[in-house]
Amino acid sequence: MDTEHSRLTVLVGKSGFFSGLGHEHEISAPFVQGEVELSSPASVGFTVQAGKLIVVDPGESDSTRVEIQKTMLGPTVLDADKFPEIRFVSENVERLGDTRWKVHGSLTLHGQTQAVVLETTLEKGHYQGTATLLQSDFGITPIRLAGGTIRVKNEVQIKYDIVLAGQ
Predict the structure, then answer these.
(1) pTM score of the predicted model
(2) CA 56, 11, 153, 135 torsion: positive or negative?
């Protein structure tokens, strides 16, 4: 995997009665390590350093992004000091066509490991896809503000763009 050109993006929504006052979040995460094996049996594995996740949130002020990042990396959400790595390891790659796969594997986040399925397509030399997970499945309680009238959604969407080395 070409970790310099590959990217993981996390999209976090908002809910609650006053959700219009809250923020939807876009978080960018560089891969620090990754391997893709295309021959049989195919496999995928990657690692992201939790402390390197960056709150992008276009349209927000720098000070707001800094505060959100501090909360995200802190003990109430990711606790990046205690759980520094986010790791995915495939267990089975199911071919759905010439350019489509379902990658079944285990995601370790916040010290907990859960089964995850990555829907993947190959387009213009990039392996791209999505997965949806619940923060609570990994022991993370979504942030609540103003007595719960503004909440971060439990459901998080993961998007990835993996470029293979030499492509």
Answers:
(1) 0.82
(2) negative
Apex 163 CA angle, 157 and 167, nearest 5: 165
Question: Do the Cβ atoms of 34 and 3 come closer than 8 Å?
Answer: yes
* Within a domain: 135: yes
Q: Alpha-carbon distance 68 to 22, whole Å? A: 11
- Residue 159 one-letter amino acid: K
- For the stretch 30-83, pLDDT in tens is 898 888 887 778 888 999 999 999 888 777 788 878 888 888 899 988 899 999
Give how many domains the chain has, as a whole number.
1
Domain housing 124: 7-163
We report the CATH number of the domain holding residue 109 as: 2.40.128.110
